[in-house]
Amino acid sequence: MFRTFDEIEHHILSSGVKKRIALTGAHDSYSLEAVVHAKRRGLVTAALLGRVDEIASLLRSMDEPQDGYELIGCETEEENARRAVAMVHEGKADMPMKGLLQTSAYMHAVLDKNMGLLPQGGLLSQSTLVEWTKEGRMFQITDCAINIAPDVQQKKKIVENAVRFAHRLGCECPKVAVVSAVEVVNPKIPSTVEAVALKQACRNGELPGCIVGGPLGLDNAVSLQAARHKGVTDPAAGSADILVMPELCAGNIFTKSITFFAGLRSAGVLLGTITPVIATSRTDTPENKYHGILMSLLNAL
Amino acid sequence: MFRTFDEIEHHILSSGVKKRIALTGAHDSYSLEAVVHAKRRGLVTAALLGRVDEIASLLRSMDEPQDGYELIGCETEEENARRAVAMVHEGKADMPMKGLLQTSAYMHAVLDKNMGLLPQGGLLSQSTLVEWTKEGRMFQITDCAINIAPDVQQKKKIVENAVRFAHRLGCECPKVAVVSAVEVVNPKIPSTVEAVALKQACRNGELPGCIVGGPLGLDNAVSLQAARHKGVTDPAAGSADILVMPELCAGNIFTKSITFFAGLRSAGVLLGTITPVIATSRTDTPENKYHGILMSLLNAL
Predict the structure, then answer these.
(1) Is the pLDDT of residue A282 over 80?
(2) Which residues does B contribute to its contact with A (CB < 8 Å)?
(3) Which end of chain B has the lower number of beta carbons within 10 A, N or C?
(4) Closest CA to A200 of A182, A213, A188, A209
C-alpha cells in the first residue's frame, strides 16, 4: 500500500497515464497552477473553461504557453459546470475539475440525472486521504464533505466507495473503523448502532474486500496502544485504513483539524461516480489540488 | 489570558490555594500519581477511597508516606462514587475525583438529585482546554464527553458554562465560535440553524460576557488566514476562544485528534457543578490528570 503522496505520484508517472481535464471556473490561480503543474509533469492535457481573458493572463503570469490548452469561454457558474460535465459525456474530456465556482453549481451538474456522472443506484461520497508521517502510512476519512446524515444503507455505500478506493491504493483488505464517541452500543448515539449493522453486513458478505469494526473511539481506531490500554480487541482497532465518520460535521471538523493542527498533508477525492470527478475546496493550496488530480488519475488507471 | 498549562500552574501555586480531594477508585496508578504530584506541590490534601491494600502498596511504590492521606475502604464502584460525593456534601472534602471506575457509576453519584453536585436547572457539560503551542494560546472545545445531541437551550447552557470558565482563564470576553461543516445556514444541518439562534441570544443579552459567531467551519474559526481567504467576516472568526461542537461525536473525535495527530497538550474539565468535579478519561496520562486537577483548582479559586 502507498505510504505517501510522493509514492502515489511516482506510481502514476511510471504508469504512463495521460488524461484530459475539463477545468471549470479556470480563472482561479490555485486550480490553474495545479493543472499546469500536472501538465508539465506529462500527466494531463486540459480544456480551460471560464473567463478566457483572465485565464490567458494567469497562464502568462505562470510563463505557461497558452497553445497547449483549449480555452472555452463560459459566463455563468451554471454554464461553466454544465459544459465541463457535457465534455466528459461527449468524450471530449476524461474528468471535470472544479475551479472558482460554488460547490452547489458544480455538484448540480455532476449529479444531473440525464447528463450527470453518477451511476443509477449509486451514492456520491467524499473521502479524504491523509498522509500520517509519524506512522509512515496513509488512511482515509469518509465522508467529510457530501453526505450530511447518512443512514445505514447510505453508510454501506460510503464504505463500498472507500473500500474500492483503498484497493486502488494497494490496500487489499482495508480495516474499516466505524468511529463514534464510545466503544459500547448506546441507542442514543446512532453511530454506535450503525457500527453493529455495518459489521453484520460485512459478516453477511454484503461488504466484501474489507474488515469492518466498531463502534470505536478515534483513539482506539488509530492507536494500538490506546486500544490495548482500554482492552479493545476489535479487528479494526489500532490501525484502521478507513475511518467512517458518524455524520458530516464530525468528518469535516476532523479533516480540518488534520490540516490546521496536525499539519499533515491530505487530499480529498469524490467517489462513486462513473468517471473520476475532481472537486477540491476553495481553501486548498495548489499542492492539495495537485494531489486531488493525482487521486483521480489513480482512480482512472 | 493564560497561554500555557505551566502559566496556569504558576498562578495556582502563587495563589496559596489548598483543596481536599476525595479520590474514588484510588487503586489506580495514573490517578494516584497525579494526586501525589499535586500534594507534593502543596496544592491538595487527599482522602483515598477504594481497595486500601492496593492503594497502600501503590503509595509505597511511589515512595510516598501513607500518613499524609486518609485511606477509606470501599468495595463496589457505586459505594466508591457515593462516598466521595457524600464527603463533599458533608464538607469533608472539596472536590471528588474519578479514579479506576466506570464513568457511569461516577456520574450517577455526581448527578444524584438529592446528594449530587448539580444545581437545580443547571446543565453539566464538559470542556477540553487545549494548549496551542504554535499560536501561543489556549482554547476550549465543548462538549466532548457528556451531552450527546444538545438542542439550542442546552447549547446555551453549554456556552454559559464555557464562558464562565473562560473568565477564570483570564479571558474577559471570549469569542465563541459555533462550529459546523459550512458557513451558510442549511436547515438540513442543525448546527448551522443553532448558530443563528445562539448569536441572536447573545445579541438579546441572554449570553453575557462573550461574543458569539457562526456557523463557522473549523478552518475559519481558528485561522484568520482561512477566514480572510473565504471572505468570512464573522466576529468570532479566525481566533475563537471557545469552539462549540455540533454534537458529542464531533467534539470527541476532534479532541482525540488534537492528542493523537497534533500532539498538543489538553485537559478536560467538567462544568456547571456546584463544586469542581474532577473526571478524567481512562486513557489520560498522569500529566493529563494533574492538569485536570489544576483546572478544578482554578475553578475553586
Answers:
(1) no
(2) 132, 145, 148-149, 179-181, 186, 188-189, 191, 217-219, 222-223, 226, 229-230, 245-254, 256-264, 282-283
(3) C
(4) A213
